[in-house]
Design a protein that fits this description.
This protein has helices at residues 17-36, 56-71, 92-98, 135-140, 216-222, 257-270, 296-302, 319-343, 347-360, 370-385; strands at 3-6, 41-45, 75-79, 103-104, 108-109, 112-113, 116-118, 121-126, 152-158, 186-190, 195-200, 203-208, 225-231, 234-240, 245-251, 277-286, 308-318. With 390 residues, it is of the alpha/beta class. The chain folds into three domains: 3-240, 4-Layer Sandwich (Purple Acid Phosphatase, chain A, domain 2), CATH 3.60.21.10; 253-318, no CATH class; 321-385. Strand 7 (116-118) and strand 8 form a beta hairpin. Helix 1 (17-36) runs parallel beside helix 2 (56-71). The protein starts with a strand and ends in a 5-residue tail after the last helix.
Length: 390
């Protein structure tokens, strides 16, 4: 028996067309490798798509790739992840299943999770939900009977585990590994975009990382994605290196905007960028000038032969910007004092105003997606105003 373990494809996750296409190409290549490796079946442990209802052109290309699996008699088993899950159940995964291209292994009968059979293999799976809410399913759905059955057993899940959270993901919603049902040979994990493994009983818990990096930080740290091929000898990782990645880092401390610009220009002029993804990370505080004074357009033009160029300036600021921010904070304090005097604000109301201003002053975290950042700001503002978003 041989099978592939894929997770977190996030088809459609990139906004930039060239990167979106590259992620799609990575999925197509993974399918081709599964066919050439002559696997018996493929597991996708959540987040095939980046949304429950993806754009039609991505559905078309995904169906084309999955049809190749079907034409080669390779069965695809899936679970919904936190991105392609929908409370209504109306997701593209359901459409793919009805078309005979995949089979969802999250099957519950009379409150019990059931196995899906593939030859001698028994496969069960628990879907993932946003915010780690799938923990409610682990508490309410009976799984203890699964570990008592004989045979080679695979459990698919889409959750972070307390014991397997990489550095930088400490605040990620997670659950203890003890919540996974016991007695399985292979635990096919998804959701955590990192290469991780841990023994559990006589089995192994494995995360293959995302199939293709999903943001600047993942490209910078991992360079590429991949998946696992599993057989009786264990498992091996197949790396999907779609493009070479050249990551450059610059410090702004004690430099003017022009000095930093010249340094970046000099360094990018010296690299061979042809066909590569080039990443520019700039951190620190400019001694004079503002980040907007840096001619990034000219820098990008210098890298015109690159496949794609991305910059990350979330850690870049300037003395001028900090002074302006301090002035804005002083103005806000004056407004609070003025309103307190004119409207007789109570202490609790004043605290709420301060908390709201703090929420609106939040900065986007490194690697945080725009939609997640917006939700975080809204959540903080709601707390400040005492509003429930449920």
């Amino acid at each position: 028996m041989k099978f592939a373990h894929i997770a977190d494809c996030h088809i459609g996750g990139w906004q930039e067309p060239k990167m979106k296409q590259l992620a799609m190409d990575a999925f197509s290549r993974a399918v081709d490798i599964c066919i050439s490796e002559k696997v018996d079946f493929v597991l996708i442990a959540g987040d095939l798509f980046n949304s429950a209802i993806p754009p039609i052109e991505l559905i078309r290309d995904t169906v084309s790739a999955l049809k190749k699996l079907k034409d080669n008699n390779i069965k695809l088993y899936t679970i919904a992840g936190s991105h392609d899950f929908s409370p209504s159940g109306k997701t593209m995964l359901e459409v793919l299943e009805k078309a005979g291209l995949s089979q969802d292994v999250f099957r519950v009968e009379n409150g019990k999770l059931m196995f899906t059979m593939h030859g001698n293999a028994k496969i069960a799976g628990m879907l993932g939900r946003k915010g780690g809410l799938e923990k409610e399913d682990y508490n309410s759905i009976e799984t203890s009977h699964l570990g008592k059955e004989m045979g080679y057993k695979i459990f698919m899940f889409h959750s972070a585990l307390d014991e397997l959270k990489p550095q930088g993901m400490e605040n990620m919603d997670s659950m203890p590994a003890s919540m996974l049902p016991e007695g399985f040979d292979y635990y096919a994990g998804g959701h955590v975009h990192a290469l991780l493994e841990k023994k559990r009983g006589n089995g192994i818990i494995a995360f293959p990382s995302a199939l293709f990096p999903n943001n600047f930080k993942e490209l910078e740290e991992q360079g590429c994605g991949g998946f696992f091929i599993v057989d009786e000898n264990g498992y091996k990782r197949v790396e999907l290196k779609m493009k070479d990645v050249s990551a450059l880092s610059f410090g702004a401390d004690k430099k003017t905007a022009i000095q930093l610009q010249d340094e970046i220009m000099e360094k990018v002029s010296a690299i061979q960028a042809d066909g590569k993804i080039v990443l520019l990370r700039i951190n620190g505080t400019l001694a004079s000038g503002r980040p907007s004074d840096i001619n990034f357009k000219g820098i990008f033009e210098k890298l015109g032969n690159a496949y794609f160029v991305m910059k990350n300036t979330s850690g870049l600021s300037s003395i001028e910007m900090k002074e302006s921010l301090n002035e804005a904070k002083k103005d806000a304090e004056d407004i609070i004092k003025e309103q307190r005097s004119e409207l007789s604000l109570f202490e609790k109301e004043e605290e709420a105003v301060r908390a709201l201003l703090s929420a609106l002053n939040l900065e986007k975290a490194d690697g945080e997606k725009a939609a997640d950042f917006e939700r975080r700001v809204v959540a903080e503002a709601a707390v400040a105003l005492g509003i429930s978003l449920n």
